[in-house]
Amino acid sequence: MMCHNQFREWLEIPPCGTLDILLLAKSKFGLNIIDISAKFTQCQVILRSKLKNSSSPDIRQVYQASSTNTNVQYDRYLKPKEVIQEIRAEKVANITYNLTSQSLIIKSLWNEAFPEIVKDWHATIDKLPKNIYNFVTRYLNNTLPTLNNMLLWNKTSSKLCKACSNVQTLQHVVPSCKIHLDEGRYTWRHNSILKHLVEYLWSVKKDLRFYADSKASKIHQL
């Protein structure tokens, strides 16, 4: 529990936010974290294996004599890595079948993202400053302070968007508020990202031609 509390403090994840995504392998957009309880189980598996396969008959007798009660749960593993594989399979199942709002983003990534981009994803977020890194992590498990979440946390009296009076979920904030759409906020964000990408690519190779649905300089209209 203490270890999990440190994770929450590090990534600013509220008490209601799941940590299951953090404990997933990087191939599942997790952080590849092995917590203390899993590491303890791995150590117990190694210990039991050493006792069982010892060249000393006396040590093997210790294994036989202790093959009851709590040790039974460790003896079913053949290798320490099986512990992590089982735990992560349980996390995936919990995210898939038990979580609702907190699983929306991560399940979309599993279903839609090409496996080839996973390595680039982690290489990119590992270079981000702490505040943006935390934002990305909380985005994945839908624990950013939208009004819908703030109401669940008893931090506000209404979950309605102050601009359009619809429920302010994460999906609503990012691309769906009609008022913000009419004000051009989403277009501005879209064009700002394109401009940033173009300026970076232009600095690397100046003879490139860029085509996009933006009127920014150095970009040719589609």
Automatic annotation (TrEMBL):
* Full protein name: Uncharacterized protein
